[in-house]
Write a structure and sequence with these properties.
globular, 4 helices, 121 residues, alpha/beta, Sulphur_relay_TusC/DsrF, Hypothetical Protein Ychn, Chain: A, Sulphur_relay_DsrE/F-like
Length: 121
């Protein structure tokens, strides 16, 4: 059974490829500010937002690293990614932030079903 108001935000875009990562983080922060439990799942190029070491974007582009650093202040503590996504883009789990949890591919369907709302960015 799912919590009636939990939210999963799935982020599939790299920090500087478009505004979608930023919009996904903003949606998560707004929901959390209103007391909704929020988890974040990073897949594909979205994993780049989880790297400990990040470069900067184009001039005038807002950095996502400060937003990532303040997620805990909004009680967004569960950051997830899949082992398959890491393998697909060749990123070792040691390169990720310390609070990232890994999911096996076979666990993904059950993981997604525990959320009452899912947003994709």
């Amino acid at each position: 059974m799912t919590d009636s108001e939990n939210l999963l935000v799935i982020i599939r875009h790299a920090p500087y490829s478009s505004n979608l990562l930023r919009e996904g983080l903003d949606a998560a922060l707004v929901a959390a500010a209103f007391g909704q439990p929020v988890d974040l799942l990073f897949l594909g190029q979205g994993i780049m937002a989880l790297l400990k070491e990040q470069g900067s974007g184009a001039p005038g582009q807002k950095a996502s690293l400060p937003t990532m650093d303040m997620l805990e202040m909004y009680d967004i503590e569960n950051l997830w990614t899949s082992e398959a996504s890491l393998a697909a883009i060749g990123v070792p789990s040691a390169a990720l932030r310390d609070n990232v949890r890994l999911l096996e591919a076979k666990a993904m369907p059950a993981f997604m079903q525990q959320y009452s709302h899912v947003l994709n960015f």
